[in-house]
Amino acid sequence: MRLIRQYLKFDLTYISSEIYKILLSIFANSNSMMIIFVQNLIHHNYYNLMKKIICGILLSVSMTLLSQIRGKVIKIKDGDTIVVLLADKTQQTLRLAEVDCPENGQAFGNNAKQFTSNQVFGKMVIIYKVGKDRYGRNIAGVFYDGDKYLSREIVKAGFGWWYFKASKNTELQKLQDKAKEKKLGLWSDKKAISPWEFRKNKKARVE
């Protein structure tokens, strides 16, 4: 109950079934990185109503609803897209939440891909799915080596942009600012452009 009281201070926008499950896993594991992760999935100001709903769920829903999945990383498609092998021998492509890395063919694209590979390739990771992107890929928070949050490590090292369009994670914003100040990774290039700008320009050239 102490954890519930402590972490129900967030402003709330929407509470989906996926977020319910992640919240449950937070209080089960007391994982500080997951607390940060969930803070940034919840966006609006329905505090009084949502507080009651969350409390009810946390107290009454079985812990078997946890959305935590484990898998082995078997392929790195690019800096923010990985393929994992699950226990049932199926493969899933995961788009990392809260980060956008340079595209393949874009400056620092290979560097970002190599950084992600160095972090997780061949390792067992913990996966928290939070939705799907327009290509049907699962969007997920990926944790490894204990409580390292992959998206956070990418931004911290300067190999990806904090994807502010789908995240309110102010910690990632601060880490990005620090990486930029230190000229880490892609920030060593003063002319570095974001992946969404790169994609937009590429599409315009094709048209």
UniProtKB/TrEMBL annotation:
Alphabetized InterPro entries for the sequence:
SNase_OB-fold_sf, Staphylococal_nuclease_OB-fold, Thermonucl_AS
Q: Which GO terms describe its molecular function?
A: endonuclease activity; hydrolase activity; nucleic acid binding
The residues the entry assigns to the signal sequence are: none
Pfam family name, one: SNase
Using the record's annotation, list all stretches that form the TNase-like domain: 67-189
Keywords of the record: Endonuclease, Hydrolase, Nuclease
Q: What is this protein called?
A: Endonuclease YncB, thermonuclease family
- Origin species: Chryseobacterium taichungense
